[in-house]
Model the fold of this input.
Amino acid sequence: MTIRPDTFAYIRDTLHQRTAIHLMDNKEYLVETRLSVLAKKNGLRNVDALVDQLRVPGSSVLWNEIVDAMTTNETSFFRDVKPFEVLRDKVFPALMEKAQGTRKLKVWSAASASGQEAYSIAMLWDEIRRNHPHWDLDILATDISHKMLERCKNGAYSDLEVIRGLSQRRLADNFHRDGDRWLVDDRLKERVDFKYMNLIHAWPSLPKMDVVFIRNVLVYFDHPTKCSLFAKVRKILKPNGFLFLGGAESPLMIDDKFERVFDCGGSCYRLKSEAPHDRKNRSSYR
Ligand SMILES: C[S@@+](CC[C@H](N)C(=O)[O-])C[C@H]1O[C@@H](n2cnc3c(N)ncnc32)[C@H](O)[C@@H]1O
Done:
């Protein structure tokens, strides 16, 4: 069975309005598969009935649940490996050289899904901190899905999830067993602040960041949304800060104020600077 064209159009348009997620016209099956469970949960016979209900003013069907169901939350610990090596071996040392005065850095994991990205950064930092005990790192992790944020805060992962990306050493150092789950140690939890945030809204409450991870979410957005997102990243990134994108994402043809650095497949960028002095410094990051 397939959903009605007006059902698909309503979900496609409203989802885009609310999240900027861009559903192609051939994605009816995706809407049907993902929303069928929600329809059943609400005692409705199918997705058409769910959307009819959703369109009624004051409906009990919550958009939050539609967003939870329609977002793709695929992630893993140390996803793609290389970005985290670049973070540890290049980015943190470069930032620490410049922040001797405060000895404090701030990282934002935007679109953090179930939290593996933020906890990977926290684990790396713990390893670095063994040799730099007087340094501090704040990690902010945000997502639009309330269900994902709940998972992040619980910090509970299955065997399958920890196998994807964690070495035995890191698992033993940072997690403890609880029944059939692995729980992140409180030490790491305390380092990460998980918050709801819709990337397409304004970011007035964000402090300036040393590092921004916005990985594997731009792929769901259209060109104007990507343009506005890069413009907002420029505003909150410190002048010496770094931006990490997913392997299939780039500011190329979207925003020419960023340049790729550490040319080693790490998808790491920083803001271009026009000052000759900075240009000279920049060449050392290549
Ligand atoms: C594929 S996951 C990426 C997770 C992680 N960054 C990684 O690379 O492994 C994409 C995440 O983006 C979130 N997302 C989608 N649209 C968003 C929006 N408008 N604002 C904030 N988060 C959004 C989804 O909820 C989902 O958890």
Q: What stands out?
A: The first strand starts at residue 104 and ends at 110. The chain has two domains: 5-70, 82-285. Residues 5-70 form a domain with the Chemotaxis Receptor Methyltransferase Cher; domain 1 fold (CATH 1.10.155.10). DSSP finds twelve helices and ten strands in the chain.
